[in-house]
Predict the structure.
Amino acid sequence: MSSSPVIALFPEASFGAALNCVGIARELQARGAEPVFLCHPGFTGVFAEYGFREYHLQTGPGTGQGRWQDFVNTHLPHFDLSPEEQLETYVAPTWEAIVDTVIAVEDSLEALLAQIRPDAILLDNVIMFPAILRAGRPWVRIVSCAETEIPDPSVPPYLSGLSPKDAEGRARWERACAPLLRPAHNRYNAFRKARGLKPLPTGQFLEESDCLNLLLAPSAVRYPRQKPLPADRFVFLEGCVREEARFDPPALPRNEGPLVYLSFGSLGAVDTTQIKRMLEVFDTMPARFFVNVGGYLDAYRQVPDNVFLGSWFPQPSVVARSELFIHHGGNNSFCEALFHGVPSLVMPYCWDGHDNARRTEETGVGRHLHRTDWSPEDLRATITGLLEDEAMRCRLSEISAAMQADPGVARAATAVLERLGAA
């Protein structure tokens, strides 16, 4: 290994994982490493914009970003269902689509890894790609979804949105989950076998790394575990928040009151009907609202004078200037709010959003509302209550100070380079 180790980062095709990895890559680069990115179709240019070299995966027709957009549009009605109801309607089909992706990119990924010959591979995903194990390089698992992804008897089942004390709910979830995920899991294990790998246990799509596992789970919201994870292989991160360009909010026609930021991510931006309904409520409130609507800016014809719509924001910088963050419960958004001491209003759609919505309430760092089952009075009262909760704000200020004193990007880079003997 050279004095400048080449480290390949491979995030899943989501902006949460992608931008989480950007923060770690910047810190690795500052310490003399050479980070490069393995890039899914649809993310071309995302990493290059931050100054990193990209290697682009090739897939067959019908497996790119357009297919994912169609998939989300099809499943939009299912986001109103409970986590248990989503097992059949959304979670199982999503695992099938994830397995499709693994199979589609395998040959391309194997060729790229042979070309790059990285000193280490950082995988931020929910599934193992056989080419990574077959490359014979040290690999690091990054858990940028909720901590529940790593099971424990004292931690609620992954994606369930359950309380850790709900034994009945856990038993019901586990009974429902296993048969629904079995077809995707069997297909995935068959592919692993064809690539010379051992099968994984029922319901498991990604093994632990023997080298290093990084978990985005701030101590303020971390679960106490019945079986502590081995400290020599598992490193908890106090968030993993990247630096972005400074955000100076533009003046609005009605430019008074606290700043509230709303982003449901690229997935939630699809639901323009829901966001328009929220804008009607924002119009009645003495606050300024900055709203990320992704690629759907043209869908909004009438915008209240106290609202600013954008297709992209430097999110960490906006959150740092905000007094409330309304989001879908994605783990990066959840951690960014904590890092900057900002209350969260979590309105989950799916996946780890349900787990983080529950944890938000349990740990007193915000509130949880159903995505659509609310009245204008409900939403208005919840936002007002969070903006006026001084006790919560004081506690979040303490959490923020502790997290910023131990930034996750620095801890992650240290752990990676130590494993490579390059620290």
User: Anything to note?
Assistant: The first helix runs from residue 15 to 30. The longest strand covers residues 6-11. Residues 259-404 form a domain with the Rossmann fold fold (CATH 3.40.50.2000).
